[in-house]
Predict the 3D structure of the following.
Amino acid sequence: MGKMNRTQKRQLDLYVHFRDRDMSVFALFRFSWRLYVFILVVGGLSVAAMIHLRSPLFAWAFALGYSLIVLRDAGGFLRTSRAWPMVREVLDWSKVDELSKK
């Protein structure tokens, strides 16, 4: 395998992190906490800007949009956490360890 891209490295980090742990929706949010802090900050600033500009409809639209992003991710995390017990069993952990050290 050639050089891994950022997404591939992140996926390996996820596998290694949850190797001996249960994977839950909350645990996946915690694993990706930096992204959700960013979403919270940008979302909060967007809503605050719309409120400051006296555009409550746009403030609600931004709040709804950012909330839907989080809900979409929660759905993906739920599917991932449900599949994790099977994925953990079929992964070649020696290969995961080898790739994660690159």
The two ends are 11 Å apart (CA to CA). The chain has a mean pLDDT of 95. Residues 56-90 form the longest helix (35 residues).
